[in-house]
Amino acid sequence: MTKLYKIAVIPGDGIGPEVIQEGVKVLEKAVELTDVRFDFHYFPWGCEYYLQHGRMMAEDGIEQLRQFDAIYLGAVGFPGVPDHISLWDLLLKIRKEFDQYVNIRPITLLDGAPCPLKNTGKEQVDMLFIRENSEGEYAGAGDWLFKGRDNETVLQTSVFSRKGTERIIRYAFETARKMGQSLTSISKGNALNYSMVFWDQVFAEVASEYPDVPTHSYLVDAASMLMIKQPERFQVVVTSNLFGDILTDLGAALAGGLGLAAGANINPERTHPSMFEPIHGSAPDIAGKGIANPLAAIWSASQMLEFFGYEELAGSVLKAIEQVMVEGAVLTPDMSGKAATSEVGDRVVEVLASMHAAAKAQA
């Protein structure tokens, strides 16, 4: 029987619609020789919707999304709408409402991808960041006191619950064990004497249950340096919401740039839909020009395939991305090419088609 997955597509703002269109195109090609099909349903939410309706998504948007198997998001943010509104009223709202407490960002230097580090290859840059995605520094707790006065004071409170901290660290240990790799925790316990000391304590407690998993712990400033000087130190990495957000952008620079940066927001229990997105943002300066790099969106589509259990298909998509980059003939300007967004997507589809033809010939 054909397996049908219902996918909510939120193209969003800026270059979001342009890159998501290519991701959808690749997903449809990837499953062509399988019993998997996707039913894509589009939602016009984002900053333009906000300017028309005074909100980033429909009032019952969360209930509408609840019926889907996954969410495919393009980008959030555009001039004219404050960033804290566009972020908190759409992206973070979805993450929190659907308890997508695991953020997965691969930092992998694919064949053909540019790396700013000299004499560094894919063997050295191959990390999997697991970022706490539901609380921590982005919990939204705090206050703004005495607005407009000379004693104006703001409080931004990080929230680290035992449940939230332990479940993300345990998820990371399970992942590292499954992959046969080491696990590195990144914190700042020397300065943040409550939250990060607690994080380090929980990491040590959970580590005692996984004696087969080699572990390392670094302060975030030292980790930033080591990611540049010795990236091979890092395999699976677990860290807090803020540190994970920052360090994965650094990692993206090592692995070819934001045009290759993919992210997955996972609800491991699958009681709610998970969400997949490129992490490059809406790039309003190039929106509508047809030159945005769609490879991050395509990579995030492969994460969706992997989440659904189709690892081989997901791997085929990554191999197709690598072949396109190795060829070097059809790339967008950010990768020193001259191709349009749609041309890159078309080339990935062509490579997948040739893979399908080869597989069919062998069958």
From TrEMBL:
Where does the sequence pass through the membrane? Answer: none
* InterPro entries linked: ICDH/IPMDH, IsoCit/isopropylmalate_DH_CS, IsoPropMal-DH-like_dom, TTC_DH
Domain Isopropylmalate dehydrogenase-like residue range list: 6-348
Domain of life according to the entry: Bacteria
Q: Return the Pfam families for the record.
A: Iso_dh
- Its Gene Ontology molecular function terms? tartrate dehydrogenase activity
Cofactor(s) the protein requires to work: Mn(2+); Mg(2+)
Q: What is its EC number?
A: 1.1.1.83
Recorded catalytic reaction(s): these are: (R)-malate + NAD(+) = pyruvate + CO2 + NADH
Give a yes or no for keyword Iron-sulfur in this entry.
no
- Using the UniProt record, name the top-level EC class of this enzyme in a single word: oxidoreductase
Query: What keywords were assigned to this record?
Result: Manganese, Metal-binding, NAD, Oxidoreductase
Q: Gene3D superfamilies per the record? A: Isopropylmalate Dehydrogenase
What name does the UniProt record give this protein? Answer: D-malate dehydrogenase (decarboxylating)
Family to which this protein belongs: Belongs to the isocitrate and isopropylmalate dehydrogenases family.
